[in-house]
Structure formats: C-alpha cells, structure tokens
Write a sequence for this structure.
C-alpha cells in the first residue's frame, strides 16, 4: 500500500505554474499527468486518489490555491478525493527532512523559507525580479549588464574590468551596442532568457574573469543574507542535529557553489560572530529526488496518513561547515 | 516671417512616443497636430512646411527615427518638406540656450544629457526602469516599496521607521498585505501609476517622515551623480558664464527640489573638491516655455535657417550655487 512510501510510478509534463499558464491549463496538465501515472502504476484511472499532494512553484497565495483546488474538483471528479498544494520550497523541504530546516532556492529567481520542526514557516524574498530576486540567475545577469551600462555612462565605476562581460553580453543577446539591449529589457523581455546569461558569467568566472567572480561572490553573500534574515525565528532543535543547521539548496545557480562559497561563508561567519552563538555549524545539501515526493507526503499528512520517506537517500550533502571557535 | 522666431500658433494632442503608441499612431497624431496648427496660424494646410522640427521623448534611436520620418513623408506629403527629430532632452536644452549646458530629466523616468557649445552630446542614464532610472519618480517609489519589503523580510534593516510609507503604500495601491502588491509589479504593471506613488512620498517627506526624506535626499544625490558622470566631457566655456554651469531641470520630481537639495548639493560639492576645479558654480533652471520651441529651432537649423529665441524669457532660474572657496 501507499503507506510504505514506495514510488509506484512517475511521470512528467509541461509547466503547471498557474501564474504563467493560467488556471485552466494548469489543472488540465495536472489531471493529465496524474491519470497517466495511475495507469503506469496499474491503478484504475476512474478511481480517485485518496489525496493528491502537490509541490507547485507559484503555490503561495491562498485564494489562488483555493481556486485551483475547486477547479480540479469540479472538472475532474475522478482525479482525487482531496487535495493539498504546497510551494516548491515547502515540497522540497518535506522531501529532505521531517524536522524542518532552511530551503534556499536560486534558479531563475530566488527565495528562502525556514520550516521549523513544529511546521511553522518564515520566508524571505521570493517577490520576483521587480522586487529583488537577490542572488538568483536573473539578479546575477542583471548585475553584470548593469555594470556595463554604468561603466559606459561613467555613472558608477565598475569594480573590475568589463571587457569580458561586455563581449559576452553582446554575444549572448546578439547586440552590437547598449541601445540594442533595450528590447531585451522591455518589449521582448523574457525573464528566463535574461537569466540564462548567468551561465556565460559562470563560465567567465571559472575562467578567471574578476568581474564575473565578484558578482558570484556577491550572490553568495546575498543568498546567505536570506538565511540570516530568517535565523532569528528558527527553533533551537534546528541547530542541534549532527549536521548543524540543515540548508537545502535548490536551483541551478547552486551548481556554481565554488564561485559563491567565499561570499556565502563570510556572511554566515559574520552572523555567528554578531550574536547567533547557537549556530555551531551548517550543512548544505541538494535533493537527489524530486520535490514532488515531499508534496505527496504533505498531501498524505493532510488526510491523516503517513508516508515514510528515506530522507538520507533523498539528499546529498555537498558542503559542511563547523564553527570550531565556539 | 518665421525667421523672427515668433510663435504663430500652438496646439496640443495625445502621446506621440512611438515606443508606446506605435509608429502609425505616432505619425497620425503628429500630422493631425501640425495641420491644425497651420490652420490656426492662418497658413494653407495643403502647403508643406519648410521644415518640421520636433522634440520627442523616445527620439533616441537613429533607425526608429529614420522610419518615423520616412513614414511621415510617404503618408502625409503635405505635412512638411523636411523633418528633424531630437529627443525631449535636446529639445529642452535648445529652448533654454544656444550655448549648451546640462539637462537632467526626472519625471516618471530619469535621464541626463550634456550638450556642449559645439553641439556634441554626452548622455548618462535614460535606459528605463529595468536598468536604473535613478532619481526618478519610479525609482523613488521603488525604493520606498522595497524598503517595506526588505524590512518585513528582515532582509535589510530600514534606514528609518517604515510606518508611514507602509500605510501610504497600502492606501495608494489599495492593498492589505505585501502579496497584494505582486500584480502591481507584474501582471498589471504600469510604470506611470507605480511612479505616481512618488507624490505621496513627497507629501510624507514634507510632513517630516524620515524615511521619505531619506529617499528624496538619495534621489538628489543620484541626479547630481548623473551630472558628475558627464562633467569630464564638458567644454571649458560651459563653466565660464555668469550663471556658472547651466543645468536645466525637467520633470515633475524637480518640484520637490527642497527635499532633494541637501543630497544634490553635497554630491556636486564633493565633485568640486575631488578635482573639478573649474566648476566655480552652477545654476538650476526650468523651462517656462515648451521644449517644442527648441525642437522647432533645431528643425530650422537643419535646413540652414535661424530661429532666434529669447532664451532669458524661456527659463526660470530657481537655484544658484557659487563655490566661494575656489
């Protein structure tokens, strides 16, 4: 039975973020994926699931989530008896641990959520590119482009030579001057394409370009600052595990951890020094399983069932830091 | 005749920014306004003007301007024999002076242009809200909203209490929490509406709110930084007039000059101290005539004619600063 926490079947499908594709398309895609998965698992597609737990990016706003659930219930009565929707951050955390921790997402955008052992949550960021997205791929790309504009304008002196970044910008965006960038900011703005420039900057940083390295160091600082922002609300037991504070890192920018490491560790060391004495150490980990697993667990929990997960098998610890001067 | 520089007739009409309304609508609006003005001035609407000089916001990009002019020539052969389009900044400067100066626009967005006595130009800013717009109404509104978000997130401590700004934000945008702001940043984003929040912040600053005052001081610094950015390219004679460096201030944010004054004057004093010794003083002025006048003058100039303007009557000096310790 499902209460062993075994994966019976998996499938994937297109984007379900209702902010991006609309509610109609979102619920159709979800229904299609679940019905295909039932068949794969040898279940009757006409029998509703007991509970469908989902971890969705864009699963933040109560009213919108309520609407999504109502829509699914009305349009697809054979889909599931009950529904539970969590954000991607919460779903990821639930996949990694039963005792909470901090999840820091840095993909196209950025976001941070503290999940306490008692289930209470505190967030920092996640408001999108107009209100920050600090430390994300969008932010890194934006910082680089802005440095080129500010240098050409003589408005702000660049912290390092802009030659590599300017050339990379012209290549990536296929422009020959700054004016050519305007459609990329406005008429044809696509956040994911703009953020994709980050990959070229990671290459530059790895090849030794000082401006690229500087921006990634700043990104590391800002991602750590998200953690420091929620730290005062963390319950004591989060600090007492053998791994120290568990920090789950999601999103492609974490692939550039080595470039962000110095900035990231510096900010956490400062936080430790400035009063967070119970921060004896921390561990950074990534998921090696889908965060849908945690979403399913929370869905089961919502109807009083328990899905036991093998948390250790779900995560991969890639960095451990212990403050030895405690 | 027109070479006296007398205004024969004036009219107005809707937005002509081709980036906003499209080329078709832009040229139709221009044609309609000019034809109405010909009739008002007692001229035959079927006789083309000798030259139509225009000062247009969005008149920056050569290719786009060329397209606009071709379109007008083809669709409206009775409009004018020749065309000359300058940006709003250049048109404003041409209205204020024949010897150049620096124009700093701070309205919804911000922009700065140095026009040298020999006609050469150097710009700083003007790239829109995605790439700065520092010191503009958009920027001021954004700084205020961002301070509220950062404070609620515990991400960045606000420089001053956010109570007034938070309340003003909730009133202006008609929201009850931060989540409610998201449509104002994304789905329903309207730059001019977002920037309109600046008026409430000016009210707050005038009533003594420290956070509002702080943001306006920063805006003053950043507008002055635009000037410092172009200063190295300014020709000597710009500094030698009796008014000192002439700075033409355009846009509604300059109505809050008293709120920006301390930041603005501080940055120029620093520039003076740090090496711009020939900056013996400066004068801030606004236009009391339309910048279309300067656009017309440049249009006449373009066909070898001279439109003499009474520059002193076109401007109003509202602040003079002289560095006495030279």
């Amino acid at each position: 039975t499902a209460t062993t926490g075994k994966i019976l079947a998996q499938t994937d499908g297109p984007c379900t973020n209702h902010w991006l594709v609309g509610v109609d398309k979102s619920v159709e895609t979800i229904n299609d994926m679940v019905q295909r998965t039932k068949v794969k698992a040898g279940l009757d597609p006409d029998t509703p699931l007991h509970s469908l737990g989902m971890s969705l990016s864009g699963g933040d706003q109560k009213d919108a989530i309520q609407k999504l659930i109502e829509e699914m219930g009305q349009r697809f009565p054979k889909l599931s008896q009950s529904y539970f929707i969590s954000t991607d951050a919460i779903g990821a955390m639930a996949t990694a641990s039963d005792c909470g921790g901090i999840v820091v997402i840095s993909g196209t955008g950025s976001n941070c959520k503290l999940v306490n052992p008692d289930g209470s949550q505190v967030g920092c960021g996640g408001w999108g590119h107009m209100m920050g997205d600090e430390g994300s791929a969008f932010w890194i790309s934006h910082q680089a482009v802005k440095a080129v504009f500010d240098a050409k304008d003589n408005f702000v002196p660049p912290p390092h030579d802009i030659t590599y970044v300017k050339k990379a910008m012209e290549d990536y965006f296929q422009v020959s001057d700054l004016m050519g960038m305007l459609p990329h900011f406005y008429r044809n703005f696509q956040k994911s394409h703009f953020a994709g420039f980050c990959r070229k900057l990671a290459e530059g940083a790895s090849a030794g370009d000082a401006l690229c390295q500087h921006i990634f160091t700043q990104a590391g600082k800002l991602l750590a600052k998200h953690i420091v922002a929620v730290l005062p609300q963390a319950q004591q037991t989060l600090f007492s595990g053998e791994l120290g504070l568990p920090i789950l890192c999601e999103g492609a920018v974490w692939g550039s951890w080595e470039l962000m490491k110095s900035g990231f560790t510096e900010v956490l060391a400062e936080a430790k020094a400035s009063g967070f004495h119970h921060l004896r150490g921390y561990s950074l980990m990534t998921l090696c399983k889908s965060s849908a697993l945690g979403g399913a667990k929370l869905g089961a929990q919502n109807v009083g069932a328990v899905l036991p997960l093998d948390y250790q098998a779900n995560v991969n610890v890639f960095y451990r830091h212990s403050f030895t001067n405690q």
Residues 18-40 of chain B form the longest helix (23 residues). Chain B is about 45% helix and 15% strand. Residues 45 and 74 of chain B are 17 Å apart (CA to CA).
